[in-house]
Amino acid sequence: MQLTGAQALVRSLEQQGVEVVFGLPGGTILPTYDPLLSSSVRHILVRHEQGAGHAAEGYAWATGRTGVCIATSGPGATNLVTALADAYMDSVPIVAITGQVSSAMVGTDAFQEADITGITLPITKHNELVTDADRIPAAIAEAFHIASTGRPGPVLVDIPKDLQQAQMTWSWPPAMALPGYQVPGDPDPAAIAAAAALLHAARRPVLYVGGGVIKSSAHDELLRLAELAQAPVTTTLMARGAFPDTHPLALGMPGMHGCYTAVAALQEADLVVAIGARFDDRVTGRLADFAPRAKVVHVDIDPAEIGKNRVPDVPVVGDARAVLRGLADCLSALISEAGPPDTAGWLGVTDSWKRRFPLRYAQAADGPLKPQYVVERLSMLTGGDAVVVSGVGQHQMHAAQHFSFTKPRTWINSGGLGTMGFAVPAAMGAQAGRPGELVVAIDGDGCFQMTAQELATCAIERLPIKVLIFNNGFLGMVRQWQELFYEERYSSVELGTTIPDYVKLAEAYGCVGLRCDRADEVDAVLDKALAVTGVPTVVDFRVHDREGVFPMVPAGRPNDEIVLGPEFSADEQRAATRRELSAR
Ligand SMILES: Cc1ncc(C[n+]2csc(CCOP(=O)(O)OP(=O)(O)O)c2C)c(N)n1
After folding, report:
1. What does the alpha-carbon distance between residue 297 and residue 313 come to, in Å, rounded to a whole number?
2. How far is the centre of ligand 1, averaged over its atoms, from the C-alpha of 495 (Å)?
3. pLDDT of 584 above 50
4. pLDDT class for 155, splitting at 50, 70, 90?
5. What's the pLDDT score for residue 581?
6. Which residue among 175, 331, 352, 424 has its CA within the 20 to 30 Å range from the CA of 67?
């Protein structure tokens, strides 16, 4: 059958089962927008291509499927760059399709020409400038395959305008030719047996769980392993929700702003089992001092991660789900032979740390509104039954720390790149992927102003996200660093709380706008926001402008130098730093 390249592109998306794409048209992608009009694929017209990219990411995080974004050449394509880099850092499967100037003009500095495959080479898992219209179905099929298999990531397909207009011969499924692309197969049974033996023998084990566990839907297998091993579990910023925070073995988040118990447990562990995690500097603190007493098992689907930062004693290359299943089976056999692992003393220690050094903040009845309180009330009022999306900064850390996550794919954020402006468009994408579910963006006033224009998209497309702005009038996280490390010299961090008027802005965008500045109003305002249907809601929470995020490990310092924060006495801080370990 003869089709145009554009028709073939749209049909390929349909064949891939794509239900929604986020994009914004322009000259070189116009041929594709024409058949899109009569396609079963829903197109959501964003206001800025960065929004399309983050929406595709939010969709992918929320659904586990591959998100799709479309842009025109030149500035349309370059506006996708931040989202592609974000998806690359966080291993989010998205496919970006860009128009390119016609083949004969490529390389001539034509109007709206940008070498987008060159620009995105280091921030995509794969990209391709298509040079033959007959290849369009294969290019799309390969893009989805590469984006979603192995360690997921972004793929960009750049298609010159003349190829979209050209006639091609359609056939599906296309033959894929990917000789250099291999997805790791079954994990090595010997490595799994060695890891299980270490877990069985450990007295102070910690499961260090990263985003890979969510990506491989391995949460049930993780729960089984943790309970068999009686090993406490820490979930990184990328893995919140992979293990229920309500479980007695849950330690919360590790890292720079992690819970004390999670940070200290890793430091004191005799065995760290890292699963789908990458020993990121925000988790390890000064690498040389991270988990100094621990043997390490490192499970990852990407062999390049293994030994990158910490050389493991037992490397296991494979899909987290398959590995966790194998580990649990192996451990279960060891338990039948030799009894359960002896971790009771260790769990006693971690439980006492949880009691003595919890996350602590002070909300006075008449005092300034604390962001932590708003997160806690949201968590309580929703019963944790929400998809929570965040921006980047203090509000992100407060949300990650204080919301009680119990299910995977309920926490979406920009962990690796740390992209301000992520929340609103990512929430839009999550809502498109999970219609009818509650999607709440917790955003900073600085972040919100970077991509707030997508509220128009949400209102028109009837994507009723809730946006809770934690309006502290500052680029709060930067302000905190200036307070702690630059002698309170506040350089260019004050935004002001009143411009823009977020309630009016929300209304101008066709959303409901609410405001709250008192603790005793939080429940009523949240109830009101949660009751809105059909249109997005924005709440301007006027939160305390001086509130910091604690605990905190200063950047580049060893995790043992963790600072509990102003709500703890000097004695408590001393006790936390000089840990007496009955179990050691
Ligand atoms: C695009 C981008 N620019 C700059 C930064 C550096 N940065 C990290 S957090 C932050 C402040 C965020 O302020 P706000 O959104 O108000 O959140 P808060 O920290 O106050 O909760 C900045 C500027 C960033 N992460 N991303």
Report:
1. 6
2. 11
3. no
4. very high
5. 52
6. 175
Residue among 86, 370, 468, 477 whose CB has most ligand 1 atoms within 8 A, to mutate: 477
Average pLDDT of 5-28?
Answer: 98
Number of neighbouring beta carbons within 10 Å of residue 470? 31
Residues 81, 26 within the same domain = yes
User: How many distinct structural domains can be found in the chain?
Assistant: 3
Q: Domain boundary at 542, 557, 576, which?
A: 542
- Which atom of ligand 1 lies at the shortest distance from residue 476's CA? 20
Domain identity same for 228 and 85: no
The verdict on residue 21 lying in a domain is: yes
Task: Write down the pLDDT at residue 108.
Answer: 98
Residue 579 counted as domain residue:
no
Q: Are 324 and 218 in contact (CB under 8 A)?
A: yes
Together in a domain, 92 and 238: no
What is the residue range of 292's domain? 189-356
Tokens of 171: 């056939």
**What is the mean pLDDT of the segment spanning 22-37?**
98
CATH of the domain at 12: 3.40.50.970
| Domain assignment present for 460 | yes
Residues involved in catalysis = 49, 111-112, 161, 477
Q: Is residue 584 part of a domain?
A: no
- Taking residues 148-162, report their average pLDDT: 99
pTM over 0.90: yes
- pLDDT one-digit tens code per residue, 391-408: 999 999 999 999 999 999
Does residue 583 carry a pLDDT above 50? no
DSSP 521: G
CATH of residue 266: 3.40.50.1220
Cα of 239 vs centre of ligand 1, distance in Å, is: 21
Neighbours of 582 (CB within 10 A): 9
Using DSSP, state whether 153 is helix, strand or coil. coil
